[in-house]
Specification:
Elements lengths: L11 E5 L4 H17 L2 E8 L4 H11 L1 H10 L2 E8 L2 H11 L4 E5 L14 H8 L4 E4 L13 E5 L4 H17 L2 E8 L16 H26 L4 E8 L2 H11 L4 E6 L4 H6 L2 H9 L4 E5 L1
Parallel strand pairs: 1-2, 1-4, 2-3, 4-5, 6-7, 6-9, 7-8, 9-10
Antiparallel strand pairs: 5-10
Helix pairs in contact: 1-3, 4-5, 8-10
């Protein structure tokens, strides 16, 4: 399996805004990332109306304080306005401006709606060719970098291995701790595991042995992948991958989750990835998605 070697080199960050609270929260994190990497930060508004001049005036006014923050942190700052459908416009601007990273907020919604993203952020996640940092409203408060406690979900697919390489690079730069998580999913919902004492003894022994073998193989494979050079812990757990990543991130007070998502074919975009979808929607810390 070919894995693309990635490193966290950020020179240009694009942060779209619709002037919402979610966008303002994401912008705080974008300023922090830009300051850490001494990168250029472009704040973008994509609108459907012809009032480009009034949009630019409002954008400059809304970001005046942020401009000073970015300058004090050592990065460069600009604002931009584009016309068109927001998601397509954001992806197009990211490509035209050779951005290395998109930073976007997610909206806190409840009830049935939380199961259907249907948002500009989701559309960008489906189609953007560059890493996307999504910032949930629950990740409020002043953003501080570098990240110190990171969790990376690994299912041994090419995209997840590239995400692991990316997160290792980021952890080395920040001297941060990194937990590589692999979840063994079974036909039944776990926890709890099946009651072995209720199974025939032969079947129970075989199932236990199989579980131990799978755990050992996954641990050995993870250990061979993480290598040395940063503080990495390997965790092999049981259950749904998204639930495992969210649970461990919560337990470890992670300030970043890193996930790989599939390619850019029509099928990949339609499926998007149930693990990524669930984690982005439910995480209480920023989530960095890496696409091959």
């Amino acid at each position: 399996m070919r894995v693309i070697k990635l490193s966290m080199r950020i020179t240009h960050i694009l942060c779209p805004t619709d002037y919402s609270e979610a966008a303002a929260n994401a912008l705080e994190h974008a300023v922090a990332v830009a300051g850490w990497y001494k990168a250029q930060l472009t704040v973008l508004h994509v609108g459907t109306g012809p009032s480009a001049q009034s949009d630019m005036t409002r954008l400059q006014r809304e970001t005046a304080a942020v401009r000073e923050e970015a300058a004090a942190a050592g990065g460069t700052f600009e604002v931009a306005v584009a016309e068109g459908e927001p998601a397509c416009g954001i992806v197009r601007q990211a490509q035209q401006r050779s951005a290395d990273l998109l930073v976007m907020g997610t909206h806190g919604i409840g009830g049935f709606q939380r199961f259907i993203l249907g948002s500009v952020t989701e559309k960008v996640l489906r189609t953007a060719a560059i890493p996307v940092l999504t910032v949930p409203p629950r990740a409020g408060g002043k953003a501080h970098l570098p990240f110190q406690r990171m969790v990376c979900g690994v299912d041994f697919s090419a995209c997840s291995l590239s995400a692991l390489e990316y997160s290792r690079s980021l952890a080395r730069q920040a001297q941060a701790s990194l937990i590589a998580v692999h979840s063994l999913e079974w036909p039944w919902e776990e926890p709890p595991p099946p009651a072995f004492n209720e199974l025939p003894s032969g079947e129970a022994a075989a199932l236990q042995a199989y579980r131990r073998t799978r755990e050992l193989q996954a641990n050995e494979r993870l250990a061979s992948l993480v290598g040395t050079g940063c503080r990495v812990t390997c965790r092999v757990v049981h259950g749904k991958a998204y639930a495992a990543v969210l649970r461990i991130a919560e337990e470890e007070h992670a300030d970043l989750i890193v996930l790989g998502v599939g390619g850019r074919s029509a099928v990949d975009r339609a499926v998007f990835g149930s693990t990524t979808n669930q984690v982005v929607r439910q995480a209480t810390c920023p989530v960095l998605t890496i696409r091959l």
